[in-house]
Predict the structure of E3 ubiquitin-protein ligase TRIM68-like isoform X2.
Amino acid sequence: MFQCRRSVYVFFLTAHCLSPADRWMAMELSAASLSEDQFTCSICLDVFNNPVSTSCGHSFCQACISSYWDTKVGAKSYECPLCKEPFRRRPELHINRTLKEITEQFKQIVSSGGQGVDDPNSHPRHRHPSLSLPQRAGELPGTVFAEMMNRFQQLQTAGTPSTHPSSPDDPLPQSPAPFSDEHQDPPPRYSPPRRHTMSVPSDSFQNLPKCPLHLRALELFCRTDNICICSSCVETAEHRGHSVTPAQREWHSRKSQLGVADVKLKGLISERERKVEEIHNSLREIQAAVETQTQGTVCVFSKLISSLERCQAEVLEVFERSRWAAEHRAEVLLTELQEEVSELRKRREAVSQLALTEDYVLFLRSFPALSSSPPAKDWSSVSVVSELTSGAVLRTVYQMMERVQEEIQQLPKVFQQSSEHAVPKTNPKTRKVQEYATNVLLDANTAHPRLIISADGRRVQCGERHQSLPDYPERFDRVVCVLGRQGLSSGRHYWEVEVGGKTDWDLGVASHSVNRKGKITVSPAHGYWFLSLRDRTDYAFRTEPSTNLTVNPRPTRVGVFVDCDKGVVSFFNVEARLLIFTFTDVFPDTIHAFFSPCTNKSGRNEAPLIICPVAMPE
């Protein structure tokens, strides 16, 4: 673009400011650098047609840039297709008349092959070899540029009368050497400009494809039928009244549209290539982070395991020391007791012998010593005891382990929110929850009057009309839903529901004390914990506001797991064995299974919800 501006500047300088001889020098120097590319629209890749220029300095066909910006309707800003400079508002385009005149002259000269200069030998280049520059690929021939100069000068003379009129026969004015009178010839005479158009000459119709019916050139285009036709086809009944335009004009118009599409495709490709690179970079960062955190986590858990093993060894050592101390004390006491028992037995033996003697002298002499109680230790308060016998240490270990387990179980929840939109992974607990299968049946007394409950209490669908049913206090009268018969207040429970291809449904649990009449607000705070599907693709857990979920693949059978004691409700994709979502809360009272097939949506959602038998894990 800078080169084009320089050429245009030289063009005007040549036409307005220089003497004729200097003009030819400038013409040659400018023609050497003037290229057809400088007259080409970067969108349609054709010569400018009604050129307009943006504030950033780039030029385009008026139709091309308008079509390009028409595709940006609703965008926050517009931008230049070349340099991507943004504009807050859509610029108002005005035709660059100077560039248009130059371009039209360029088209005519190129169409005529550069004719219009009478005598090439009178050109100053032939008298000044130093001005002869080699023509490079894509540049305009000097004769073409000279013709442009002639015609532009005629435009200037026709539009602005000169204060010093001169005829083409007047000699060039004198100028400093080397262009003095004695060194230069008279300037070339100007020949009248020829008129040229961009339309195809009549003799060139022979090169166009022929109409198979009229054997004439297919020079027209029927926009109604989207085919090329000849001038005779226009008069036929088949094309009479249709929108017809010259084929070449339609070609240029659609070529510009194709250029706009190409620019848009380039932008889309670039945007997606950047996104691909961004994803690759993110993946590399995630992989590096996972590697680092894996190593760190393994190290931490290894230290934790070592710490637990060391703690275990210390506790066992305490047990051993306590046992040894108890054994040692017992051994000392037993020895002392055995010695005392031995002495007492000897004394008893002496008493027995004394009682049997007939020697009353010996009896009376020994009786005082044997009849009195011997000195004996009071063993009533002596015992061998230990705290280990009460189980206090073991209870302390259990309590500590429960606290550690609670802390460890919090780790997966920390990453739960961030992993909801990640690639789903098979949940190893899916098989275990099936062990808590509960025989859930529907409570017809709670069903909305439009709901049809099967006789076995396992199937519910929404009918077209309200049924005449008793208005029990437990019946929902506005929301099309039904509760399970069984009240769940403790333990773990699991059931599965076939949702098939329904577009809308709700599944979960509800508190026994929820409001069932009139308008209902569904959220955990109001006693509802359930998963919803709307419009076939929008999954959400009903909180305030709703927690939107990305569920892939789409489930056709949903498993519901409830741990009443811990306040946990989880949802599973049964076929894919994937965890969909888990929510933890506190259930204030008894809860019931909650089902809503939603309305029929004009037959698009008439399929029922079916409670299915749970397949036990192998």
User: Anything to note?
Assistant: The chain has eleven helices and 20 strands. The first helix runs from residue 2 to 16. The chain has four domains: 2-159, 202-242, 250-394, 425-612. The domain at 425-612 is CATH 2.60.120.920 (Jelly Rolls).
